[in-house]
Amino acid sequence: MPLLIAGVVFALFLSAPMIIQSAQNQVLDLVLPTDNDALFSGDGPAFYQHIERDYNGVKSTPWEGGQYGFVRDPKSTGGGVVYTRFHEGIDIRSVHRDANGEPLDEVRAIADGQVVHVSVVPGYSNYGKYVVIEHRWDGSNYYSLYGHLSSIAVQPGETVKRGQRIAVMGYTGTGINRERAHLHLELCLMFSHQFEAWYNTFFRNDPNRHGLYNGMNLAGLDVAHLYLALRKNPALTIPEFLATEETFYKITLPKAQHFDLPTLYPWMLGGEKRSGSSWEVSFARSGVPLRIEPTQRRVAQPEVSCVKNSSAECSYLTRDIVSGRGANAHLTNYGAQLMRLLIWPN
Q: Is residue 131 part of a domain?
């Protein structure tokens, strides 16, 4: 009998690494967070919540403003009209309302994960009441964010399953009324575990009530395109998905004691083993980091090492992170602050 018990224990010990590895390599199997599935039929007006726009005196309600990306605040430039305001998630329209027009849509977790943040005071964020869930795929953590909720059914620390009810859609947050009630959904990477110390240094007069899960520390990827890409290739991973993103600018960072990105997302290193005097990080226009490479260029502070040529001012194209054009491109004050977050407290 003791030998049998020992054998069972030994077998469990051998299988433990496999169990852990399995948990770290869950398939990226996402479900839409509400009953609105018009995304999959290509019906943009039915899926995305419109915004209200007044451009050059012309008022409109374009549904395109509910998409991910540079879709808001048009501005006329020498190179034509550019959209200068970035929308980091997608706004999903309500499909269930009561007789008074109140949204009834159930909001569900898009994948298995753990609730890491719940914000129940609408005035604490432009997101209004919101929830953040941490997911682990291929050894890295990603974060889904659900904003503008009317009520929340989960607590921090709670484990949730794909498709589990977590909230009800609402219109809490900045600039939203009952007519425009919607769910704001993001799927994000995290910049740094040193965020709170960085934030408290640069934004002392505006308390951070969201810890690591403040939107400034989360870089949202194009979740709508990810849903569509997964329909074509269910085995797709986030690194493979982001590999199709175009690099728009690169920032050289000095070597620092704290540089969390390669630890949080080791796939960004691409297997590079070379040493260098500093790190060069490639970014998409969205501000999502894509790749990290060692470089021999020596810098004392974060600097722009290259930027894609464009006819418009770079600040309009990079969320005001990089300004100027071509060889004259440089980090804005905000951009310099944000890049310091990556290596804080260096």
A: yes
Burial of 189 (0-12, 13-18, 19+ CB in 10 A): buried
Q: Final residue of a domain: which of 229, 254, 275?
A: 229
d(CA 258, CA 338): 14
Give the predicted TM-score (pTM) of the model. Answer: 0.91
Model pLDDT for residues 82-111, shown as the tens digit of each residue: 898 999 999 999 999 999 999 999 999 999
> Residue 5 domain-assigned?
no
Same domain, 103 and 195: yes
Q: What's the rounded Cα separation, in Å, for the pair 318 and 84?
A: 8
From residue 329, how far is each of 274, 312, 337 by CA, in Å?
28, 12, 16
Domain co-membership, 165 together with 261: no
58 and 192 share one domain: yes
- Order of strands across the sheet that contains 303-307: 289-295, 278-283, 249-254, 303-307
SS3 327: helix
